[in-house]
Amino acid sequence: MQKMAELLGLRDECGEGTSGAPALAGSCLADNRLNLDVYPDGCRRFLQLFKEQQGEVVQVEFLRLSSNDCLLDTTLGSLPHLKHLKSLVLKGGHARDEFGSCQHGSLTSLPPDFGNLSCLTHLDLSFNRLSTLPSCILHLPSLSVLLVSHNSLVTLPEDFGRLSKLTFFSAMKNQLKDLPQSIGELSMLQDLDLSENALELLPEEVGNLHNCTELDLSGNRLLSIPDSLANLKSLRRLHLHSNLLVTVPASLASLPNLSRLDLQNNCLRAIPAEIQTLPFVHIRGNPLGETEPSPQADKSSTRRLKRLFLASGEGSFTVTSEGCRVVLACGIHFYFPPGAASDPLRIHFRSLPPDPQWVKLRHHDVLLSRVLELQPHGVQFQQEVQIWMPYISPQTPHQHEVVVRTFSGQSWSDLKTRVKRKRKSKKCVAHCCVLHFSWFLVVSRLVQNECKVPAEGTLLFSSVDPNIKVIFPPGVTKEPRSVKLQVLPVSAEEIQEITANAGCRASPLLYLSQDSTVDFLKPVRIQLPLPPGVTGLNLDQSRLHILHGDLEGQTWNDITSEVMLEFTHLYAVFEVTHFSWYWLWYTTKTYIGGIAKKVYERLRLYQVNFIALQRKKDPEQVLLQCVPKHKVDPVLKKLQDRYRGPEPSDMVEMFEGEQFFAAFERGISIDMDRPDCVDGRLSFIFYSHLKNMKEIYVTSPVDRKGQAVKGQVSFYRGAVPDSIPEDASRRRKGPDSLWLATLPIKLPQLKPRWDENPGPLYGFSFPPLNLGNAETGYLTQANLLSIAGRVGADWQSIGLNLGLTYQQIERIGYNNREDLNKQILDMLFSWAQQNSKDPGCVSKLITAMKESGRQDIAEELP
């Protein structure tokens, strides 16, 4: 275990400040390990070491490199020289795309002499671009663990069974359509994961895997499974959910060690009684008891669609020509009518945080949901698919309406949307129909009225304020064109507060747009209500101004002298030939354009406060949030039982979709490797109806034992958003103008240095550990942190084998649902705390690793 602890010093010892190859080699090569996948230039570092310290490098037994590295191809040629290599990780996923998703690595093949690595037992090529399994892998005589998940494999080699020592094989999330018969020759295989592929049939030879304890075939296209699976007497867990199974062999009930059988979300209308009575079988999401409709029967009235309920963590499902209803764990619903998909189609989905770089909100839009991505993009359905998306109810329902907005790959457009509130949960959902999949989100926009203007002319009025009308006379256009109208009411109180002038009044803001770039052939007549308190009886025409604004609201021009104004007792009427913003003002001011510009800017701003709270039981856990002013008190009341901290910051103003940063200062720091960390600061995007909240662990890099650390967190503006008013943009320039607020953070006790007692990893910090006994060896915090870095997607299986309950695993997965590293750490340290006084816990951990197919980790434990 001391070796693992030394390994944790790698990042500090091999950091950017290291100079000189000998020093680099001396520290990095401690204990024959090289973990270089944490560096963006890890391959360059490896090549430097290999060139200048080759004698030591060739002794390396454990090597990790990122396949997102641009020098990977050059590095591959050197790897066959590492004759002592036991474990090699060449994973992708270390870089992220514009949507925040892991990018696959560039690895497509391996050099032929790679098969000469006779000592290699563990090989991880996940998150790459392999379309075929490199043939040299079949020549690795000692290989026992092989991971090729998240690639593009369509098939496996016919002689795949040559890997006779293989105990663990994962090919999840590929495109495998069949398996070679030789797979039955893998007599030592204990864990086989083929989930999320396109398998339609299994060879009978799968029944020869007599040592297999876990078999995951979920998320495929299997219609049936062979009876030979009943020969797998060592099998403990069999995952068959989310397939197309119509039958399962009753002989599965005779498997003596089976403790979990997952048959959820299939097409099973009947399940053998022997299986149905098993206490560990899961059958939800099957059309049990339903009968096939007769040819003469009306299919629409006799067939109930299959319902799929997906658990948290699942990311795909299969749709067949029979159709189905799908419910995601996040509350999103789908309805695929019969015939929507002609062939079985695998649907992948994910929830993405909105990024203002590509989620472009229009003026006065409010974002109400995260982004839902559905793949495959662009596939045309034969019938419309219905989608229900939950959203946060907006505060201004009268002047705004909720719509689902979709991204075509180039631009966003709004879908015809219906909204409703669920009776039981009181949650709001937006419903739309689509013929193809892409990206979707829910927004609140200004209520939009539209019509088609024919050559004969027509009338368009606002549903927000029916007194606002647009009259199109005959001959106004040659070809029909679409026209849209939106209205933004502005109260007299708002005008008075912003202008500090009781004499200023204004009508509702009117926005007109059309789908043609050509002006109308005849003037269009617009009717606006007079500002509040003004009537035809007391009207002073010299105080009335018609303002025309550009599309971005940057300029407001007084066009009163350019139009013919008519008045009635309640309305002002004027004519225009092109469309944009129009605003009717009543004031004694001569120049009104600047005042209107200021008011328009303020109407788009939100008044917010920042809060920084520390968890009472663990002050190193800090909650940061940007809260609209009117929500501050309810938010603090909800958090006061678990958190304490200073009063909220002073009020500041922000635009919807504006970026800001949080920087910890004066002796407090965070994990700089977080994906949301930019130049040492946490990045946020303000959306008025989303939480704008992050909970992180902090520490101090300076050793001041026994003394409290009085630090602070400061908030700064980010990049200037697109299309904000010119004055606001000017105020957001310069170093002093970027600062927003500062709040105190106090650590009651400083944590030791990382190299003395490892602290936070991926945003977590944990109390010191010393598990085990002198005979079996000890496990420290450093040991568990090192183990956590290698667990990967197996964490749930390992957790169950360690004795954690399914409920605990589900809760850990949900609480850290957006971060795999946090799930792993939470699982390991939850187990460690429960077993802190058990002298046999080290042996339990070794056994759990072996039972989970992670012999590579088990071999390194004491």
From TrEMBL:
SUPFAM superfamilies: DEATH domain, L domain-like. The active site is at 436, 438, 578, 580. Keywords: Leucine-rich repeat, Repeat. One of its GO terms (cellular component) is cytoplasm. Coiled coil: none annotated. It comes from Ficedula albicollis (Collared flycatcher). One of its GO terms (biological process) is signal transduction. Pfam families: Death, LRR_14, LRR_8, Peptidase_S68, ZU5. It comes from the Eukaryota. Residues 780-862 form the Death domain. Residues 313-446, 447-588 form the ZU5 domain. InterPro entries: DEATH-like_dom_sf, Death_dom, Leu-rich_rpt, Leu-rich_rpt_typical-subtyp, LRR_dom_sf, LRR_domain-containing, LRR_R13L4/SHOC2-like, Peptidase_S68_pidd. This is P53-induced death domain protein 1. The record marks 437-438, 579-580 as: Cleavage.
